Amino acid sequence: MQIPCVALINKKIKHMKKNIFIFFAILCICFNHSSLSAQLAIKSDVAKGGDTFVPDRKAGISTAFDPQAADWDISWPGVVSQYDLVYKSPPIDPMQGIPLGNGEIAALFWCEGSKIIAVVNKSDLWDDAKPDTLDNWGNENCDQYTTQRHACRIIIDFQFPVFNTLYLSGFNARLNLADASMTMEAASPFGEVGLKAFIDHKTGTLFYELNSDLNEDVPVEVAVERYGSRTFSGWYHQINRDAAIGLSGTDSFAGDESIFITQKLSSGTFAVGGTVIRDNGLEVSYSREHSRRVLTRLSGNSKKNVQFAFVVTSPGIDNPVIEVKESLFSIKQKGVEPFRKSNTEAWKTIWDRSFMDYGDDYLNNLWYLTMYYANASQGGKYPGRFNNGLWGWSHDVQNWNFYFHWNQQQLCWPLNAAGFHELVTPYLDFRFNSLPQAKKDAKKFFDSGGAFISDVTNRNGYNSPHTLLNHTPVAEIALDFWRQYQYTGDKKFLEKQALPFILEAARFFESLLVKEDDGLYHAKEGTGYEGWIRLKDGLTELVYAEVLFSTALEAVKVAGANLPEVKMWEDILGNLAPLPVVKASKGLIARGKEKLNIAQGIFKGASVSTDDIVSAGWGIKEKKWLATYFDTDDPAYSFFSEDSPAYSIRSKRNGLKLLDGIFPAVPNSPVFPSGLVGLSQKDSNLFDVMTATTLLYGTECTGWDPVPIVLARLGLSEELAVDLDNFPSRWQIYCNGWGHWGMEGLINEDAELFFKTNTVKDINSDEKLPLRMWPFRHMSMESMSVLSTAMNESLLQSYDGILRVFPAFPDDKTGRFTLHAVGGFVVSAEIREGEVQWVSVKSLLGNPCRLELPWSEAFVRSTLKKRVKTVSGEITEVKTKAGEVIVFTQEEESLRSWTVESEKPQSNEKVKYHPSGKTQLGIPRMF
After folding, report:
1. Class in CATH terms, 379-579
2. Which are the contacts of 509, defined by CB distance < 8 A and separation ≥ 6?
């Protein structure tokens, strides 16, 4: 009898509570109607036109993501401007500078004394050498090769040292990522000055708004000048002492309303021109100072406010000054505001494509800066080079000068996942246009069919003959073409460009293999990537043979082509020699009580399933299977002496020595960038071998080493987290986020030591002399791309057609993203302390979606359907229609109880410091 009584009492209590709740709810509605309305405005009902998603505040998902719109409810521009660069002191060096660009035209701003200096570049300002085979290491032509020339320098001189530390009383500058603009303000005892600037995304016009309020009415001068120079492509080891090289062909003109500089190149003559488009009553005069400098002079008032426009043309045979005049006239008629508005809209469209929140503000900031620099330098007729992008600052100096394959490809690695497929196009166009020369060189150097591309080429596709044993670039580039097709689904691109390039690459690779008595196809003599130790059955060649022929067969099938080579390529794939595998040196992988463990290095103690590691290949001279890294006491390497050029004294953090004649990225090749091994092979022996190899060799040895991406592809989340935590302190050199490829710590000397010299050779006399390094300091963009790609791969992988969310994300972190995937999908997801909250997939092309479920079972709802579907299993496949959004959750109730929480991040107002204390973003107040 007691139990029913208790139940009855509880029932009455619940009824009373319900009545009390209703009473107070009515009071709340009556007295707080306005407050409730405000809350509902923030916490929006997702299903604004139906019952697909019904909000319920009692339970369910609370997130900033709106599944109906497939977008984040995070306010603009804060979602991006929280990663702005902030300067509290002037950038007094170009390597600290503020970079602008629209992909084709770029400008880099810094301060010197009384001046703001901007160097302007354009992607197609090429000076071509005579058509000939490229001899990039030759002495006699080292400053005569095809090279990219700078456009001009624009120098604003306020006449007083307003940027000098001695006289600064205030300074603030900002790179505004949301609209790719910059602002700069300085205060001093002499008065105040300011500058606003942007490069219009559509036209490439550089706009200035200049302000000054000085104590005296001194003229402000805006000069445009151009001094050509030697390229110094071999600045680190040789020099041509003829200082007149590069100076010819420059002239200048001044009209009543504008100024011009022209430069003759072998590809035609280009012009730079500028004019004041709003003078606000100032006296404006234009003059020609001499053949290399023109001047705009502003006077008539101590307070000055004026707007400028500057235009750069492409090289052409007609008079480019007429083209500049017409452009400037049209701009002046319209004024700056229409351009400012369209530029802002264009950049918002760019930033709307993806979203990154790795759960680490500093890494997020570097990711957004990397995407900004890509959009500012990689969208022109030619891709901005890996060295300095489009921000080469020292006249016509072009460090390395050419397109180096390994380095250049890396700039494309993170772009498809971020949705910037059009930024990959200039690189692929450049490579496709090189195909005729590549086919000639395959015949010339190898007497083979297909196409050969050297590791070093110029913009016309001429190949260096010094790296003929590195056979893999053409295969890697072919896979770049295929990746572009996988993301875009562009059949016209597949038929016109991707398939022809892939086929020529496969035809060349066919010549690299020979069927031996064992019935297997073996790789003939070659090197591991850029190395020089000669190998048979080289790892890179076997890896790319397998992936390339598989890709070629798939591309042929998709395109519906019928080729006689198909049977041969199928035979090669069925009988390809296995990848070379060897035992790790004794003691490097030790057996514990139950498991094998890495015995040294940064990942010491990590468990592995095997002590087998990949070999770089069979050393033809050494008659041994060679590994890329080895223990210094390993007797297998006793035939290398310490002074051998193949024996590197440079050690990684794991304490192993690098066999320098084998490129450091060789052991990564089965995983990335080839995509042969990944999480789809996680139950295979080769996956175990690659995991053991990667953990044993440790972290990257240079800024271009793709180890972080490999860690992500192998699902090594904790190891990747350690690597990324340390990455900025090792490879970010400059305060604007720019990185470098160089050996850890060594490149900092070039960036920081003003008096450092290098011993170089005079090419005409072989005399050795010291050369100051400071005029040749530079950044390189590879490390930024490696970091961004690793972050992408940590959050989303799709390279094999299976969508995997958070496949290498730390269990203790919270993160979220919107990224693009193979098959034409835009994927968004959120994770909180290791628990995936939801996954959204927007189908752009209507392809079937294959998702590796982050739960054992999931509930699925489409924006086109009301019925909830249940799916289970490791991988689920869902049919889609173009434009459809599909949401996956772990609980069905979450689909009905979805609350959108608006977020309003603020623009960044501070200098950011990496936790290591070794690097920073922005410059603090230093006066």
Report:
1. mainly alpha
2. 450, 471, 474, 475, 544, 545, 548, 549
The answer to whether the CB of 198 falls within 8 A of the CB of 179 is yes
Q: How far is the first Cα of the chain from the last one, in angstroms, to the nearest whole number?
A: 84
Going 30 to 35 to 38 to 44, the CA torsion angle's sign is negative
Please tell me the predicted confidence (pLDDT) of residue 427: 98
pLDDT for 750: 78
Question: Alpha-carbon distance 448 to 438, whole Å?
Answer: 11
Sheet arrangement for strand 757-762: 238-239, 757-762, 768-772
Report pLDDT for 604: 94
Assess whether pLDDT exceeds 90 at residue 507: yes
Q: With pLDDT > 90 as the criterion, what percentage of the chain qualifies?
A: 83
The top-level CATH class assigned to 2-74+795-901 is mainly beta
Residue 14: is its pLDDT beyond 60?
no
| 780 has a pLDDT exceeding 90 | yes
The DSSP secondary structure of 303-370, one letter per residue, reads EEEEEEEEEEPPPBSS-HHHHHHHHHHHHHHH-SHHHHHHHHHHHHHHHTT-EEE-S-HHHHHHHHHH
Q: What is the pLDDT of residue 650?
A: 61
Domain spans of the chain, in order of start: 2-74+795-901, 85-127+146-227+247-351, 379-579, 581-614+629-662+664-703+711-728
* Cα–Cα distance for residue pair 840/227, rounded to 1 Å: 54
Rounded Cα distance, 823 and 490, in Å: 11
What's the whole-number mean pLDDT along residues 186-196? 98
* 768 within 8 A of 761, measured Cβ to Cβ: yes
Nearest in space to 778 (alpha carbons), one of 137, 231, 242: 231
What are the tens digits of pLDDT across the range 644-679? 878 776 666 778 899 989 999 999 999 999 999 999
pLDDT for residue 647? 77
The model carries a pTM of: 0.93
pLDDT (mean) for 168-188: 98
CA-nearest of 237, 401, 138 to 758 is 237
Between strands 581-583 and 612-614, the pairing is antiparallel
Q: Is omega for the bond preceding 189 within 30 degrees of 0, making it cis?
A: no
Task: Tell me the torsion sign for CA atoms 210, 214, 216, 221.
Answer: negative
Which fold, 85-127+146-227+247-351?
A: Beta-galactosidase; Chain A, domain 5 (2.70.98)
Q: Using one digit for the tens of pLDDT, what is the confidence trace for 686-734? A: 999 999 999 999 999 999 999 999 999 999 999 999 999 999 999 999 9
Q: Extract the tokens encoding 497.
A: 């460009």
Tokens of 698: 């440790």
Residues 6+ apart with CB under 8 A from 258: 273, 274, 275, 286, 324, 325, 328
Decide which of 130 and 445 is more confident: 445
The bridge status of strand 456-457 relative to strand 513-515 is unpaired
Count of beta carbons in the 10 Å neighbourhood of residue 837: 18
For tokens 């005569």, name the residue.
144
Q: How many CB atoms lie within 10 A of CB 904?
A: 11
Q: Is the pLDDT assigned to residue 25 strictly greater than 60?
A: no
Mean pLDDT (whole number) for 477-482: 98
> Tens of pLDDT along 201-252?
999 999 999 999 999 999 999 999 999 999 999 899 999 999 999 999 999 9
Query: What does the alpha-carbon distance between residue 4 and residue 6 come to, in Å, rounded to a whole number?
Result: 5
Q: Are strands 920-921 and 912-913 parallel, antiparallel or unpaired?
A: antiparallel
**DSSP 8-state assignment for residue 239:** E
Q: Give the chain's largest Cα–Cα span.
A: 113
- Hey, how many other C-beta atoms are within 10 angstroms of the C-beta on 557? 10
CA 414, CA 164: separation in Å to the nearest integer? Answer: 39
User: What is d(CA 583, CA 172) in angstroms, rounded to the nearest whole number?
Assistant: 58
